[in-house]
Amino acid sequence: MDLSAINPAVLFASLIVAATPILLAGLGELVVEKAGVLNLGVEGMMIVGAICGFAVAVGTGSPALGFIGGAVGGAALSLIFGLLTQYLLANQVATGLALTLFGLGFSALIGQGYVGIKPPMTERLSFGPLSDIPGLGTILLRHDLMVYVALIAVVAIWYVLNRTRLGLILRAVGENHDAAHALGYKVVRIRLLAILFGGAMAGLGGAYLSLIRVPMWTVGMTSGAGWIALALVVFAAWRPGRLLLGAWLFGGITALQLNLQVAGARVPVEYLQMSPYVITILVLVIMSAKGGRALGAPAALGRSFHATH
Amino acid sequence: MIRLEKRPTPSRFWVAATPLIAVVLTMIAGGIMFAILGKNPFDAIRIIFWDPLFDPNMSAYSRPQLLVKAAPLILIAIGLSLGFRAGIWNIGAEGQYIIGAICGAAVGLAFYPAAGWYIFPLMVIAGALGGFLWAMIPAMLRTFFNTSEILVSLLLVYVAQALLAAMALGRLRNPEGGGFPGSRNLAQYPAASNPELFAGTGIHWGVVAAFIAVIAAYVMLQRHILGFNIKLTGQAPRAARFSGVSPVALVLICMGTSGALAGLAGMFEVAGPSGKISIDFASGYGFTAIIVAFLGRLNPIGILLAGLLMALTYIGGELAQFMLGLPKASIQAFQGMLLFFLLALDLLSNYRPRLVKREGA
Amino acid sequence: MMFRRTLLASAALGLGLAFGGAAAAAGMDKVKACFVYVGPIGDGGWTFQHDQGRLDAMAEFGDKLETMYQESVPEGADAERVLTQMALSGCNIVFTTSFGYMDPTNTVAAKFPNVKFEHATGYKRDHANVSTYDARFYEGRAVIGHIAGKMTKSNKIGYIGSFPIPEVIQGINSYFLHARKVNPDVELSVVWAYTWFDPAKEADAAKALIEQGVDVIAAHTDSTAPLAEAQKAGNVVGFGQASDMAAYKPSPRVASIIDNWGPYYIKRIGALLDGTYEQTASWAGMPEGEVVIGEITEAVPADVKAEAEAMIAAITDGSYHPFTGPIKKQDGSDWLKEGEVADDGTLAGMMFYVEGIKGDIPK
């Protein structure tokens, strides 16, 4: 075993890339849940985003348009969820699960003609000599644009949720929809917009997988990334900053165990793989033991809203 | 514009009619999809809904197979429905199903190759107990720390899946399996197998258990004080507390029952149709059962029918795939549509749409 | 044991002919062949190649062959039902294309003695109507191992393993032996992904190898993700696995090992049509055209390419076996003496590394 072969800076850099899809999808779901809606269909929206982004990028030759396509695809699928749960008052848990089932099938249908094709390459940004700074340059300054988009989104979402009126309204809707309604806010419309945003972010995460991280299209290629994104939101206690750390932890465990293997260490792969979830549960317990409100879980999470007056 | 008025009690007519309408709508939408894929939509719909039940070559085999496929879904969904009625959200049945299978299989394999009438019953107990204990984790955490059982039970699914992989590759791996991941085949170890009860049908103890669960749940909800308490807690939590229902006891009972039933389902599956612990043993029954519970309107008879309908789309979907060369993806999309329509139309049984003049609503 | 069963089966066949009866013996006018796939055809790898084989057979036999298939059949309870439904719907021969179908195949075969079952990569033939087939992928690994040994500049080569099973261990050993043979300084890193197909994880695995200095990567998993990772790194090469993965030519994909099932499917369906079908345990490779090395691109120096082609020719005409002694096991004990060739039984159960590979096979 030769652990010195692992360069921490390089490992951290690849961990950032590995975390980007679940970070994007997790940020979207965070906003959705802050608005009081639990959408378990992240996996479905991600994979639809993956194929839509891939198809658009291949069709137009532009990865940038591809990402837009991915976001639109994810949002379109989330619209089904939004209509069913917000207007037709369907149960959110069941609808979310059905959304995943439908998304997996639907994406495979669209993707029939795209197997074995290579998408247009996305260039990495270059910050000139800055990228060559040892350590920091390697970790932070040699990525593609989407990595930075995701990082900026963390800050932007934190800002909007905590420092703007829009964020206040969103949180009010998620905490107590009846009160928000009584104050005159359009609960259903706000939630629908949040759901669409969540779908678009999941779609971006999926497109990142199919256009940059892997880059290819294959059926079922998300392999559970959407479910991880869901767990991530809980781990983060609905806080964007902690979501970033969580994404690095969840995404990093795989990168770390593979690196340890290459270095010759014997790794209990499965036990390592379950550790982030166990940690998440412990975090949840500690936070809820400290008292419910510190948890950050929106009080109206998962409940349907129907205006009675 | 249209306004929705909540009905005081669900409309009996719409409760019965909405599933039929949803199926018809799915046939139309799915038919269009099949036509776009270049297949005859009428053939496809016939093969999915009709042939498994009535085709002269197939039906003798596929009718009992519907029960086999539906049994774990029904068993799990019955357990879940009790909690869902009381506002207790166990969405980690998939994990409890996996743990039940691991515990049941581990007990059976521990005796290998001994023979004995007591081995299979011990496995049944181990399976139920495994699922029960796994469900107790979120139940206890909710009781003592007020931690959300939705999130904990979901997170425990991932842990269970990793544990399953660890078992298939490690402790439970078949020592004579040529190094391949996966346990010995329990179906080929008579003392531990969940046998076919009627030759040629594939019907096993899990199907029997599913029917018992349906009847027991029905009787309990209609006649027993516990059933009343569950319904009361769901409809009026505060009134329930005043009338002496202990919320803690209810959480433990509902989570425990659903965990035990999910564990049983996993155990019957691993000792019977599936035969062994393997990395991809978990096929999402625990999640599909959530959908089945809602499609069945959380009612035992409804769940029975919903489970059979889901099984029909699985088996009919398989037939359609190889008879017509339809891609598997189109069947998944078709099932997704069916669920969407069913969930959407559910509205009509609980709400009355009314046309009203536009006002500042 | 196997041999005995075959004899018995042929005897029964002869008997059937003598009494002028059984349809199976007399050949058939038309065959319905059915395929059970473990993944979607769109996986671009394992299942995709089996489906290509099915299409080859259809092109070969035209009207005489009808095929049906089902994708993404889970390897448990569902497999048994799917197989039964196929048998009921009139399939004459059913190909089950994944190891996990071994038990269901044998169970269903017992119930349908007139239907032929062919199970890929397994070893159980409990009934006279069950045959097994597999490909000697380690022959291909020998060729790419040779290329890897010549192409590496860092003297570090990598292998992404799926699961620690004999088929994969054969591949690792063959790859390493032939790299070491042409480059005594070469070191091999093995990383286990514990999946056959998870593009993101495969990309991570390739990345981990590259970050630790590996510059030639072979994969035993099915996606193109490792090649894409090699391309991003720039100075790393790799090989197509299962399918040609031509999109990554000429580099990083410098050659490929193609699973070519067409010849086998054509042979077996043909035998059923003309009445010469018998139970077999087939383990075919380059000579039969089942393992094919895809185009070796111009990124490989001409002399290396010529050597690789010579090796392919030698394996194909039977003059060279990739496991020819002297070979020692990892612990230094002797395995094969000078000139001795590994027997199939040892290969089929191979759970040890050869001398020079570092690390242990995970238990």
Automatic annotation (TrEMBL), chain A:
Its main location: membrane. GO terms for molecular function: transmembrane transporter activity. The keyword RNA-binding does not apply. GO terms for cellular component: plasma membrane. Keywords: Cell membrane, Membrane, Transmembrane, Transmembrane helix. The keyword Transmembrane helix applies. The chain crosses the membrane at residues 6-25, 37-58, 64-84, 96-117, 145-161, 192-211, 217-238, 245-265, 271-289. It is a multi-pass membrane protein. InterPro entries: ABC_transp_permease. It is found in: Cell membrane. It holds the Pfam family BPD_transp_2. This is Nucleoside ABC transporter membrane protein. It comes from Gemmobacter megaterium. The lineage of its organism: Bacteria, Pseudomonadati, Pseudomonadota, Alphaproteobacteria, Rhodobacterales.
TrEMBL record, chain B:
Keywords: Cell membrane, Membrane, Transmembrane, Transmembrane helix. GO terms for cellular component: plasma membrane. The chain crosses the membrane at residues 12-37, 66-84, 96-112, 118-137, 149-169, 203-221, 242-265, 277-296, 303-323, 329-348. GO terms for molecular function: transmembrane transporter activity. It is a multi-pass membrane protein. It is found in: Cell membrane. InterPro entries: ABC_transp_permease. This is Nucleoside ABC transporter membrane protein. The lineage of its organism: Bacteria, Pseudomonadati, Pseudomonadota, Alphaproteobacteria, Rhodobacterales.
TrEMBL record, chain C:
It comes from the Bacteria. Pfam families: Bmp (PF02608). InterPro entries: ABC-Purine-Binding, Peripla_BP_I, PnrA-like. Residues 30-294 form the ABC transporter substrate-binding protein PnrA-like domain. Transmembrane segments: none annotated. The keyword Lipid biosynthesis does not apply. The keyword Signal applies. GO terms for cellular component: plasma membrane. Keywords: Signal. Residues 1-24 form the signal peptide. This is Nucleoside-binding protein. It comes from Gemmobacter megaterium.
